[in-house]
Design a protein that fits this description.
The chain is built from seven helices and five strands. The protein has helices spanning 2-24, 31-48, 79-92, 123-131, 147-172, 177-209, 229-278; strands at residues 66-75, 96-104, 110-119, 135-145, 210-218.
Length: 279
């Protein structure tokens, strides 16, 4: 009886071991292999470079991207001195002068505009120093928030770079000329988009890192209206000159008529005299 029970136990153990072994032999295809199988079944290279899901912005540190600009209208006593100081402030802060122009007014005083680019961290301090150059007539400042655009462009760039990597892998394994041409055409499109987005990101980085300050400088203009003796004399002289000019013009226009009438009167007198002689 004990021998029979021992044999039955061995039989059950062998059966269980066989079941476990059968279960452990079940295999699966990794996702990468399944994708390759789908491609080989006729999906073509397009199935391997399907548009990836946009990457989440959670992995991008949210740092506000602000483009700062300001403009000031400052009246100064000496234009050249003030303009030189604005340039010095820009260079001292690590910036530069991007544009400048000036002109001389009818009274011989200078006016002009200087545009400087300064690092974002020194924007406020440079602005305050410029205000000290003279009397501030007007001032304005603004900040353009481009954070959303920047994050969107960065995510699109990452996705396009991943597509480019996949296309390069497919290009190495292309078996027909047709597939080779299709992959190269798609690569050209992807690289064009990458260059466009990269250029836009560089532009935003430059505008964000360097703030723009436009300074309009002007020297005070003299008072043009004078109601004193000098002004009265000046007005009198101008009036006299104007009257004299008017008389000259009038005389010049009426002189031919006067001469003609005088000739007619002379002829008339001569005729009358001859008639008296005959009588």
């Amino acid at each position: 009886m004990r021998a029979s029970m021992f044999l039955i136990g061995l039989f059950l153990t062998a059966m269980l071991t066989g079941c476990v072994g059968t279960t452990s032999e079940i295999s699966y295809s990794p996702p990468s292999e399944m994708a390759a199988m789908e491609t080989e079944k006729g999906g073509g290279f397009q199935s391997a470079i399907s548009e990836p899901t946009p990457s989440s912005t959670a992995d991008i540190s949210i740092e506000r991207k602000i483009i700062k600009t300001a403009s000031l209208d400052v009246e100064v006593q000496d234009f050249d001195v003030a303009a030189g100081e604005v340039k010095r402030l820009a260079q001292a802060s690590g910036g530069f002068v991007s544009n400048s122009r000036f002109y001389v007014t009818d009274t011989g005083h200078k006016r002009g505009t200087i545009t400087i680019r300064v690092p974002e961290e020194g924007f406020l301090s440079v602005l305050e120093e410029v205000k000290k150059l003279g009397e501030v007539k007007s001032t304005s400042s603004s900040g353009q928030d481009v954070t959303e655009e920047y994050i969107d462009l960065d995510a699109r760039l990452r996705n396009l770079e991943r597509q480019e990597e996949r296309l390069l892998e497919i290009l190495e394994n292309a078996s027909t000329v047709e597939d080779l041409l299709k992959v190269e055409k798609e690569l050209g499109r992807i690289r064009g988009e990458i260059e466009r987005i990269t250029g836009r990101l560089r532009y935003l980085d430059e505008r964000i890192s360097l703030a723009t300050i436009t300074v309009e400088l002007s020297e005070p203009e003299p008072i043009t209206h004078s109601w004193g003796l000098r002004g009265a004399l000046s007005s009198s002289v101008e009036g006299f000159i104007g009257t004299a000019m008017g008389l000259i013009v009038f005389t010049g226009s009426i002189l031919p008529v006067v001469i003609f009438l005088a000739l007619l009167f002379g002829v008339y007198k001569l005729v009358r005299r001859k008639k008296k002689v005959k009588e």
